[in-house]
Amino acid sequence: MANEFKFENNIYITGYVGRKPEHRTFESGKRLATFSIAISQPTRGGRPQKPMWLDVEAWDDMADRVQEQQFGKGSVLTVFGALAPNYYEQKVGDTYVEMQKVRIKLAEFNLEIAKNPDATESAGTAAVAEAGPSLPAESEAPQELAATKRSRVRRTA
């Protein structure tokens, strides 16, 4: 009997936007929007859940849609996309460390609860701030994120 499993690189996540999207246009005309999203990680013993930070990137037409929505930090967003690994080397002294960081390449998104960073505080955005958990700065991301990075060390002669 043939293997009938179909393996696909699809991801579906709902979480809180961690920072206002950054938009760039390259000389080639390609457009890129990047932002982060925090999702809850289950913990043992009833302790508060720790957020897991994921980077999201949107290219060209999808980057334009992200820019049009003008959502910001604290908005609740559902993203649909694919995992996209990024490999790079970093030199530390005489040692090169090969790193892998996984991003989500955005295919579609739904804005569940908007929080516009440019708008004044209104009743709707205040409700989001009160209802949602406080988000730590991305630099305070939990150590569990190390699992999303893999490294290999190569020494130079």
Architecture overview:
The chain has 157 residues and is mainly beta. The chain has one domain (11-89, 102-140): Beta Barrel (OB fold (Dihydrolipoamide Acetyltransferase, E2P)), CATH 2.40.50. It has two helices and seven strands. The radius of gyration is 18 Å and the shape is globular. Residues 119-155 have low confidence and may be disordered.
Strand and helix map with partners:
Blueprint: E1 11-17, E2 22-25, E3 31-41, E4 50-59, H1 61-69, E5 76-92, E6 95-113, H2 123-131, E7 150-155
Keywords:
mainly beta, single chain, 157 residues, five-stranded mixed beta barrel
Can you give me a brief rundown of this structure?
With about 160 residues, this protein is mainly β.
SSE string: EEEEHEEHE
Number of helical runs? 2
CATH topology title: OB fold (Dihydrolipoamide Acetyltransferase, E2P)
Beta-strand fraction estimate: over 45%
Radius of gyration in whole Å, from Cα? Answer: 18 Å
User: Which segments are poorly predicted (pLDDT under 50) over 5 or more consecutive residues?
Assistant: 119-155
In spatial order, strands of the major sheet run 1-3-4-6-5
